[in-house]
Amino acid sequence: MRCLVLGCNGMLGRRVVEAFAAHGHELCAMDLPEVDITDPQSVEAALRFDPQWVINCAAYTAVDQAEDQPDAAMRVNAQGPRVLAAALAERSTRLLHISTDYVFDGTKPGPYCEDDRPQPLGAYARSKLAGETALSVLGQRATIVRTAWLYGPDGGHFFRTIVRLARERGELSVVEDQRGTPTLSNDLAAAILELCRSGRSGLFHATNSGVTTWYEAAKTCCEILGINITIRPVKSSQMPRKAPRPANSELCCDRLAAALGGPLRPWREALECYLTKLEPALRENK
Length: 286
Known about the structure:
This protein has helices at residues 11-22, 40-46, 70-88, 123-134, 158-168, 185-198, 214-225, 254-260, 267-278; strands spanning 2-6, 26-30, 53-56, 94-100, 142-147, 150-151, 171-175, 179-180, 183-184, 202-205, 212-213, 230-234. The chain has a six-stranded parallel beta sheet with strand order 2-1-3-4-5-10, with helices on both faces. With 286 residues, it is of the alpha/beta class. The relative contact order is 0.15. The protein is built from nine helices and twelve strands. The chain is globular. The termini are far apart.
C-alpha cells in the first residue's frame, strides 16, 4: 500500500509510521510545518504522493485548553477533516481518521457501541464529533477509529505523569469515578494497519481489552514498577478540570474484534509490556 500519514510526529502517528514501515508499505509521513490539514493548498500538495490511504492522526488534543480556544480546536479537528474530505472527493483514495471516546457524555451504564448517539460535553469533544460528521461525504471510502486513554512511547500521558509524581511525592490522589481502558499506541497502530490492509470502512471503536479506573490504573502502574507509594482515591469533583470528562469512557470493541479476528490484548498486559520493554527508562529510580 501507498500510505500518507498526517500528524506523523504525534503519539499515535509515530507508531503508525513504524507499524506500516515494518510491513514494507510505501510511506509519506508528514506533519506541521510540511502540511497543514486546514489549508486546502497544503493538502493538495501532500496528495501529490498519490496514496491509496490517507491516515489522519493530526489533531488538536489539548482538552482543557480547548475550552479557552474553541475556534482553534474546531479549526484542526473539524475544518481539517472537512478539507481532507473535499480534497479526496474526486479521488479513489481511502481515508482513516482517528476520533475519541469524548464524543460521548459518559452517562451510559455500560460500554458505548458505535451506534450509540454521541453527546459531546466540551469544546474538544464537539470539535472531534464535527470532524467525524465532515467525513460522511466520503461514504464507504472513510474509516473512523474512536479510541480512549491513549499512551505510549511518545509524548506526555497519564502513566508518565504518575511515575514522575510517584517518585517525587509520598502520596498521590487519583480520581476513582472515571472508568475506561488505557490503550497502548503500538497496539492501536497495529489495529489501524490491519483495518487498512483488509480495506475495512465505517466506524470502529478500538481500545485494549477490559476496563478500569484512573485510580486502579495508577496503582497497577506503580505495582509493576515496584514503586511503594500511597495512592488515595478521590472523586472528580475534588480535582476539577476546566473541560468536562466522561465518567464512562468504556468502548465496546466487538466490531473491531470481528474485523481483526480477535480483540486487542488486555490493558494490564499492554501496560506491563510498555513499562518493562517499550519504556525501560521508567523503571529507573531517578
